[in-house]
Write a structure and sequence with these properties.
Helix content is 26%, strand content 24%. By secondary structure, it is α/β, with parallel strands linked by helices.
């Protein structure tokens, strides 16, 4: 069974909106402005370590509009790896190796986890990541926190009455001041 790993870029104040230059947000590309070599190599290794990528439709459209135009090892991996999309509107994905999950979305993700032996990476996809959390499908969070307070924009985590208990299992810092915090989701007696 595969584990579901949510990897997200967030600001110190919890914003995850438009990190890579998506239009319509005042601070768009707030991560792109801070990229550095060690961080990019770390994210490349993260993609190599996962069997598949799982995204929502909005992130799919952003990725599919960009990655096929890039060159290099990172682009080759992103373009070649199996990709799964949770969407009720996307019917014929153009990005190679992409499958739109069928049926009730959370049940389809649970089946995907059962069918894969390797880990599944969820990148971006704030709405999807929160739905996965509400359905207890996330196994690990990798939050790359950037040294910026944006003051506005969509927060990564939705407000909810339910708590998700986590255990910090790793940290890594980068020359640009970003810190990745890796948390394992605790269930049942682990709490």
């Amino acid at each position: 069974m595969g584990r579901l790993v949510v990897a997200e870029f967030i600001s110190i104040d919890g914003v995850s909106e438009a990190p890579g230059g998506e239009p319509g947000y005042r601070h768009t590309n707030w991560v792109g402005k801070r990229h550095e070599a060690k961080q990019i190599e770390h994210k490349f290794k993260e993609v190599l370590d996962h069997q598949a990528l799982l995204v929502g439709r909005v992130t799919y459209e952003s990725f599919a509009g960009a990655w096929p135009t890039y060159k290099g090892r990172f682009a080759d991996r992103m373009n070649g790896m199996p990709k799964y999309v949770v969407s009720s509107t996307l019917k014929d994905p153009a990005w190679n190796n992409t499958t739109v999950l069928q049926g009730e979305p959370m049940a389809a993700v649970a089946r995907l986890k059962q069918s894969l032996k390797g880990d599944i990476l969820v990148g971006g996809s704030r709405t999807l990541a929160n739905a996965l959390r509400r359905h207890d499908l996330v196994d690990e969070y990798r939050l790359m926190v950037f040294p910026v307070i944006l003051g506005s924009g969509a927060q990564f985590f939705d407000r909810t009455e339910d708590a998700t208990n986590l255990r910090l299992v790793a940290t890594q810092s980068f020359p640009n001041g970003a810190v990745e915090l890796t948390y394992q989701v605790l269930r049942g007696e682990e709490i």
